[in-house]
Model the fold of this input.
Amino acid sequence: MTPGVGPEDFLDGFDRILVEVAATGRRLTREELESRRDLGEQAAEAGLGLRGMVGAHFAAAREAWPAASAGAGGPGSADSALAAVQQAVDSFAEGYERAQRQAIRQEEAGRREFIDDLLHGRSDLGRLAERAERYGLRLARAHAVAVAEGPAAYEEGDPVPRRVVRAMTARFDSRRILVTTKEGRMLCIAPGDQEDVLAWFAKQAYAATDGGRVAVGRSHPGPGGVVQSYEEALNTLEMAERLGFGGPVLKAADLLVYPVLARDRQALADLVVSALGPLRSARGGARPLLDTLTAYFDSGCVAAEAARRLSLSVRALTYRLERIRQLTGADPADPGQRYTLQTAAIGARLLNWPAQEL
Done:
């Protein structure tokens, strides 16, 4: 609240209006209503509570009431005075709420600008760290970012993000964390040493999105660490989509081998074409045999489990593995030759081969 400012500073002319309206029976003029709205806005900007201001209006009405009754001289005096109080308070509250909405919009815009600057590494780092304190973050510390996506795109005011925020606030109200949205996804930024926060966020986001997926970036220090962890989480989500990973929660730290493979795209493309290119000459193309390799490796090279995943008989799966050996010259069941085929199969998924030519 602004120092030295009280409720009486925003009741200017109220007693006069009450007396005059009670005497004449008229309604408040447009100018009088607008003046009440302006005072309501000013009270909100000064930090006074609406409940207290409504009480101040009624207190002022009680003080002015004898004068109002004396000046009225008619049976309609009380009704006119009460109608004036109602109009004045209603207009005052309208102005107050208008100022509150404007303040909320400004706060949301400032918060959105901060999040954009934070996650894209823009703005002066010193200034960014100062702004971060306002939202409960100390960027000198290490932070990790969890990103959740569901079947729909989410904005901050939507029911799903609100549910997650309520669950996070109820459990970690005193922690320095930030839960927000970005590009249709939900985010949680937390100190890097508080894995329980990100785990709880993942659980709540999974439940709120009816089975969405959450990726958690690694912890990194400083303002740039938030950006790095955020990008790791996004890349993990993208990689999980391409590679068909199951599981609701994926950690970037557990999947470091895949970014390493994808870092040299040309070398990876050469490996895929060299090791798996001959599969394109098979009847039906390379896709069925590539899917067979993927299922075989994902099932720990257990033929029965791979056959079940592909809805094939074990005999049919064995035939496909033999066909792969014939075409590529590498045996998927041979430990010495398996690594090349498995790496190439992962590379094919990362590069969307054979749907996309390399």
